[in-house]
Amino acid sequence: MTPQSTRQSLTQIAKLIGNSIKLACETRPLVSMLQEAVRCSRRAEGVEYAIRDVIVKAEEVRRTGKRIINLNIGDPVKYGFDTPPHIKEAMKKAVDSGKNYYSASEGVKELREAVAEKENTANHAHIEASNIVITQGISEAITFLMAAMVNPGDEILVPGPCYSPYLTYAKFFDGTPITYRTKEEEGWAPDLDDLESKITEKTRLIVVINPSNPTGSVYSKQELSRILEIAASHNLPVAADEIYDRITYEDKFTSVASLAKETPILGLNGFSKAYLMTGWRLGYIYVQDPTGRLKHVWDGIEKMSRVRLCASTPAQIAGVAALTGPQTHIPEMVRKLKERRDFALKRIRAIPRFSATTPKGAFYNFPKVDLQGTRWSNDNQFVTELLKETGVLTVHGSGFDPTYGSGHFRSVFLADEPMLAEAFDLIESFMKQHS
Ligand code: PLP
């Protein structure tokens, strides 16, 4: 092409563009063109969190004037279990005495030491303060874990059903969460044959949530030891979410770290449930890794902690008071919760088409609904209609895993007996009317 013909072609192209803009402006005001919706990123578009997504539906129902009874969120503080006074005092004192700065990214030294002490004495782990990173709740620890473990195409084994952020963040980092079956008929115990059969050359990590959200199962020492054997024989690390370690009823809690020998463990725990500090956003992740196989992963987790600066400094100082101060509120809370669990179970088991195992830890019921021959084609539809008609808000089981959670719903038994009674009266008449 000669320079002259290039110039001519460019002039023609410019004319064409000019004409198209003119035409578009004549048919559509320029402002509306500029305001066209901006595309959301593929990653953010795929994010789901059933436990809070249902609140959007509940808001719509509330606007129609109906009273909502919330049985959806695992926040004991919202149901009258108050943060113990010595923890509140420590937070106030920290704020008043000017501890309002950014802390070290890995966390306040005294808190990391107190966490190591707690994990080593109460849960028989073998860690030091330097093996701990303090996070903004376990929620942030889950993102660190997945960010540091998952490359595109990697598979993460998680229990089915599962606390859903593990599914969400495995996908967010372009991995694939694979759920291993937990057996409802055996109180949602892990199906160890299923777990082992799902290990492939792409598997990077086995996740254990014990006690379980949403099923309330508490894994036995034998089950945990067998999971560790499987992990060892496939050279895999284990991540253990033990946020409900202090909230068990009949069965005794055993930490994964206490049973692990050489298998590397990433432990996740926090202050939301046992210390009633949900809104303060405080948790931690630790590594127990005698052979140093997770060195690079841990470096990655520490780097992630630096880029988000730190967890709330006053909350961390209150965390020290939580771990080192009086613990008497915990047995008292567990006693109350056990009564509420028994009451909720009795009511659930008396409702047509419902069946439920006994939760041995945490504060969730995960009843099965026999949907066959009913007007509801799935658990999501069931939960939505229950909400619209009665105002009782629960979470559909498929939100915790479409394979092993569907046909169920999750309801918390944190509410006091009058509130639970009101909710179950409504659910019972709904079921009697429609099934
Ligand atoms: N892990 C499990 C198993 C949970 O059930 C929850 C909250 O319900 C979390 C983590 C979130 O904890 P945090 O408040 O520490 O972010």
Give a topology summary.
Blueprint: H1 3-27, H2 30-34, H3 42-45, H4 50-63, E1 69-70, H5 85-96, H6 109-121, E2 132-135, H7 137-149, E3 155-160, H8 165-172, E4 176-183, E5 189-190, H9 192-197, E6 203-209, H10 221-233, E7 238-241, H11 256-259, E8 265-270, E9 283-288, H12 295-307, H13 313-324, H14 329-349, E10 354-355, E11 364-365, E12 368-369, H15 379-390, E13 392-393, E14 395-396, E15 409-412, H16 417-434
Parallel strand pairs: 1-13, 3-4, 3-6, 6-7, 7-8
Antiparallel strand pairs: 2-9, 4-5, 8-9, 10-12, 11-15, 14-15
Helix pairs in contact: 5-13, 6-13, 7-8, 7-12, 14-16
Bound molecules: pyridoxal-5'-phosphate.
Pyridoxal-5'-phosphate is lined by residues 74, 137-139, 163, 209, 213, 241, 243, 270, 272, 278, 283.
Strand percentage:
5-15%
Strand order of the largest sheet: 2-9-8-7-6-3-4-5
Number of distinct beta strands: 15
Please give the alpha-carbon distance between the first and last residues. Answer: 78 Å
Describe the biggest sheet?
8 strands, mixed
Count of separate structural domains: 3
The average pLDDT value, as a whole number, equals 93
Q: What does the radius of gyration come to?
A: 25 Å
Report the CATH superfamily of the largest domain: Type I PLP-dependent aspartate aminotransferase-like (Major domain)
Distinct ligand kinds: pyridoxal-5'-phosphate
* CATH class value of the largest domain: Alpha Beta
Q: What structural class do the secondary elements suggest?
A: alpha/beta
Low-confidence runs of at least 5 consecutive residues: none
Helix fraction, binned, reads 40-55%
- The general outline is globular
- The tally of helices reads 16
* Reported CATH architecture of the largest domain: 3-Layer(aba) Sandwich
Q: What is the CATH third-level topology name of the largest domain?
A: Aspartate Aminotransferase, domain 2
